[in-house]
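Format notes (please read before filing issues)

Several people have asked whether sequences and structure tokens are stored in separate files. They are not. Every record keeps both together, in the order shown below: the sequence lines, then the token lines. Line labels are part of the format and must not be stripped during preprocessing.
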Amino acid sequence: MPDLAVEWLGTVPYAEALELQQQRVEALRKGGGQDGLLLLEHPPVVTLGRGAGTDNLRVSESELAARGIALHRVSRGGDVTYHGPGQLVGYLILDLSAREERDVHAFLRRIEAALGEALGELGVPARTLAGYTGVFVQPGPAEPAGKPPRKIASIGVGLRAWVTYHGFALNLDLDLDAFESMVPCGLDFVEMTSIARELGADAPDDLAARARRVVGETFARQWR
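Then the structure lines:
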């Protein structure tokens, strides 16, 4: 099975990252390139997934622009979400046909499993929620019944001739108020959270660097 090359790209504007993904996808489709995970951050941006409308936006596009937040309509699955500083974004460029894994649902479950494993190593117990894509926080034993599920990672992928692109967004220590301008992922019953919020005073000072290392190592191991 091909190895997975993991790259940290720093802060990259959304349009530039999308163009880079498209270049990597075409290289794999033509028999060149290498399976990879691109880790990066975006300046503030809201993205609408394939088939998503603006119904789940609570503010207008002009209001987003006034706040310095870009808006992009893209070809990934899923609904509306936010990317910004303090969030680790991972774009998986994989040739599933070369791995004999032509099953998109299984691919999504593997992403969830890898993120759950990485979160566990970072001190946050994670879980999935039946019927919904993404990763949520395992509730503590003292939490009251009926408390909204807390979502910590969103996932939305695209596929071109069995080559994947787009990927996941893991909330590290971003400003969660940014999600108030939307119904995140179209799920009005969830609360968005972050590793920093879950760990509180126990969150390490080098959280971003540690998360990049753990997530990169976990995904490289999962897809080796």
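For reference, the curators noted about this record: Helices lie at 14-29, 61-66, 104-121, 195-199, 207-222. Residues 104-121 form the longest helix (18 residues).
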